[in-house]
Every structure is written in C-alpha cells, then in structure tokens.
Amino acid sequence: MTPSLLLFVLLSCGGKEAPKVKVEKYKVDKIDKIIGIARIEPAAKISPLGAEIAGKIVMIHVPEGQFVRKGTLLATLDQSLDQAQVLQTDAKIRTRQQRIKSVEAKIAAIELKISIAEVDRDRDRTLAESKAGTQKAAFDSENIYKNLKAELQIAKADLAEANATLSEVETERNYTQKLLDKKNIYAPADGMVLNWDVKLGQALSVGVKIGDFAPSGDLIATTEVDELFAMKVKIGQRVQINIQGTNEKLSSGTVIYCAPYLSKKSIFNDRADNLEDRRVREVRVRIEQPEAVLIGSRVECVINL
User: Fold this and answer.
1) What is the dihedral of CA 152, 153, 155, 156, to 10 degrees?
2) Which terminal residue of the chain, N or C, has fewer Cβ atoms less than 10 Å from its own Cβ?
3) For helices 135-181 and 80-129, what crossing angle results, to 10°?
4) pLDDT tens across 101-118, in order?
5) Which residues of the chain, if any, have pLDDT below 70?
C-alpha cells in the first residue's frame, strides 16, 4: 500500500462520528379520528345462490335488484326427465292400488264363503252326532271350511305384499319428486337478488354459484384499522361515511363490532400474489341511512375517537 493511500485510510477511520438522528415515538394519543376504506355489505352477509343438483337453466323468474320473500321461486332447471319419471311412478302407483282393491274384494268373497261354510259345517256335524246325517258329510263340510280359512290367510298375505309394494313405489315417487324440487331454486330468506352469473340454457354442475343474494336487514360498512390504532376503536363510537377520496358525507353510523384479533392480510387485498404482512383489526359500522349507499360499494369511514 502506498504511503498516500495509507494516510487516506487512517484519516477516514479517525474522522468525526456521524451525527445521531433523534427518533421520537409517534404520539397515537393525539389522534382523534381514524379514516379507513370500507366495503358496504348486508349485516347478514351476501349469500351465494347455487343449485344442489346438475341441470340446465330454463327459467329465471326474478330479475336482478328485485326484493323477494323467503321461499320465492328464483330460477328453474330443466325438469322434463324428472317429470317423466314422476308420471311413470304415478302409473305404477295406480296399478298397485288396483291390485290392492282386487285382493280386498277376494278377501271379502272368501270371508262370505267361510261364513256359509261354517253354518254348513255346524249343521252337518249336528246331524252326524244325532245319527240323522253321515260322518262323510260332516267330514267334507269340515274340509271345505278349513280350505276356505287357508285361502283367506293366503289372500291376506297377498294383500300385505301389495300394500308393501305400494309403499315402496310411493317412496320411489317421493324421492323422484324431491329430485324434481331440487331443480327449483328458492330465496333462502327475505332479501334481494343482487346479480345472476348464469344465462338461460346454460348447463350447471353441482355446487356451481349462479348468483348473489343479499338478505334484508341492516347494512354495514366493513373496514380495517391498523394495529397501531387498533385498541383505540371501541363499540359505540360514531362514524361518518364519506364518498371515497372526498369529504362528501353519505351517511352516519355506529361501530357495532371490533374483531378480537388482528388479521395478517387485508380483506381488501384483491391480489393473490400480494404477500405483504399487514396486521389490521376488522371493524364493522352499522349504516343509519342505508338508502344512501349501495351494496358492494367502497366508502371512507371516519371513526371519531
């Protein structure tokens, strides 16, 4: 190393220390408002609509944005095959019912014959005992009576079998009817169909989402508060709802829920590849003028501390 270079190194190492920067802790106690981006949702949360069974959409009965009552028919899948199976089962039921009537008529006829045979048996037995008749006549009358009793037991067994068969076919029909009913999609509660994700003629597989449904009730604004200010938010605090990015007020609200834990990922993060570690506390605000906001819109929540 040259003398000049060595001198330069020594002077650099022996120079004055860099001035220290004074760092002060951020004064969160002086914060009187927190502003967060919020999403407007029903208090009961948006429910996805779906079909429990595969099929093709043949009818949409309710347009988007229409309020409906619980149990209202919203959409129908193709039911032609199921209806044909129901008709086929109905024909089987009618055949079984006719068979039952036939066996019941047979039983009634046998019972009538038994009553007559019983009278003949008792008469021939009395005559044989008094020597006014023969033992053969009494024996024949007894056999006729016993045979008719046996026929009655067989007919009753046939009737029991016919009833069991009818019950089996009725169970089959009930199952087919339930499959048919599953191709009707009903409103799960009072509320509004927000949107349809399907079109007429579209084939669906089991469990596919076909639309969104908003149950009736209060609207809430769901926002997030950074962990630095998380403990300052309390239930009951007043909130002003503004148009996002402006000071224009849409409505007022009240904090009704503060999550008991911190989330690592923002609920407003729409990118799956965003791995930023954001610890936030979810806060829900009940909207006092729900007609002033739209479900699904984003607003600013100004929480007064």
Assistant:
1) 120
2) N
3) 170
4) 999 999 999 999 999 999
5) 1-29, 265-278
